[in-house]
Amino acid sequence: MKVIDLRSDTVTLPTDEMRRAMYEADLGDDVYGEDPTINRLEQMTSEMIGKEAALFTTSGTMGNLLAILAQTRPGEEVIVGSEAHIFWYEVGGASALGGVMLRTVPNDSEGRMDLNSIEQAIRGRDIHFPRTALLCLENTHNRCGGTVLTPDFTSSVVSLAHGHDIRVHLDGARIFNAAIALGVPASDLARDVDSVSFCLSKGLSAPVGSMLCGTREFIESARKWRKMVGGGMRQAGVIAAAGIVALQTTVNRLAEDHANARRLARGLENIPGLSVPRVEVPSNIVMFKSALTVSGADFMRQMATRGVKFGYRGNNRYRAVTHRMVDSADIDEALDRFEQCTKKLG
Ligand code: TLP
């Protein structure tokens, strides 16, 4: 029985072409700036994203952390969406290592924040207040179900923030999913922000790594912070080689993942006991609910024994993510297994 793993697009394994490129990569010591493969990936990334410079990081979590460390000082405040990955899933690193406070503004169902609410959250010049130094957006938005922020929305948030001398970081872990969903280049989505991070190891299928982009000065500072948190890697070109292949070969195919996500959503919606709040899935993340008599944990266990894995969000809500290792036949097979299971559980 094939296990259909929909827990995350992070489970994708490198392609054969990536493994070959890793084997053949030209290497050097990246802490000395001498790894040609890393240098090539950073150069290629800055061109694709439309920023002066880029930095390879171990993970999306590290990319976001460095963006905060390089653009704030301890005691300052960072505005994030109430559903932001930085707020929920990054172990409080911004506070623990950066000494900043995270101030949340509600995310709407599209992953946006209301401009008036942002304005109200920005600190004034009162002696008692911390300074608001940074605002973070997320595109696509993970907890909001892979929703996509348009360049116009991003632009309006950035002009508001810049008007108050606040920088803007974009957690673009899945920025290429957003670009494919909107049919625009990723550089359009990053145009106005000061810094942007994205992951090579999600839908793009590289085994390890994320990129952080911005001005040369910002990247120089982030590079120093990366060294401090232990992210100065040596012959890192061995993994960057896979990242280069990822950017060259896997971006356009994300459209398939989006089509499969919609196929999954439509199928789940038709299964008694399950429901999908947003059947028109914007990218590759499907949120669904169950009204079964069993607990969420039991439902997941039953499905795991049938070889279908997905994530639990509490309160009978679940997340399934499509990716390169799951094709449309696998989606149909997963739907069959869901149907058999829900029939049995009632
Ligand atoms: N997200 C993971 C888990 O939520 C941990 C996933 O499976 O979706 N920003 C966003 C929007 C993300 O979704 C993630 C990973 C990250 C940052 C962090 O990336 P990594 O896992 O490379 O540290």
Uncertain spans, ≥5 residues at pLDDT below 50?
Answer: none
Q: How many strands appear in the DSSP assignment?
A: 13
The number of distinct structural domains comes to 2
Fourth-tier CATH superfamily name of the largest domain? Type I PLP-dependent aspartate aminotransferase-like (Major domain)
Unique ligands: ligand TLP
Outline the biggest β-sheet: 7 strands, mixed
The CATH architecture of the largest domain can be given as: 3-Layer(aba) Sandwich
Output the structural class: alpha/beta
* Largest sheet, spatial ordering of strands: 2-8-7-6-5-3-4
Number of helices: 14
* Helical percentage: 40-55%
Gyration radius, to the nearest Å? 21 Å
At the first level of CATH, what is the class of the largest domain? Answer: Alpha Beta
Order of helices and strands: EHHEHEHHEHEHEHHEEHHHEEHEEEH
Q: What separation lies between the terminal Cα atoms?
A: 24 Å
CATH topology of the largest domain: Aspartate Aminotransferase, domain 2
Amount of beta strand: 15-25%
Mean pLDDT: 97
Question: Can you describe this structure?
Answer:
There is one protein chain. The protein is of the alpha/beta class. The chain has two domains: 12-249, Aspartate Aminotransferase, domain 2; 253-345, Alpha-Beta Complex (Aspartate Aminotransferase, domain 1), CATH 3.90.1150.10. The protein is built from 14 helices and 13 strands. The strands form three sheets. A seven-stranded mixed β-sheet has the order 2-8-7-6-5-3-4, with helices on both faces. Strands 9-10-13-12 form a four-stranded antiparallel β-sheet. A two-stranded parallel sheet has the order 1-11. The chain is globular, with a radius of gyration of 21 Å. It starts with a strand and ends with a helix. Residues 8, 10, 59-61, 85, 89, 138, 142, 171, 173, 199, 201, 210 line the site of ligand TLP.
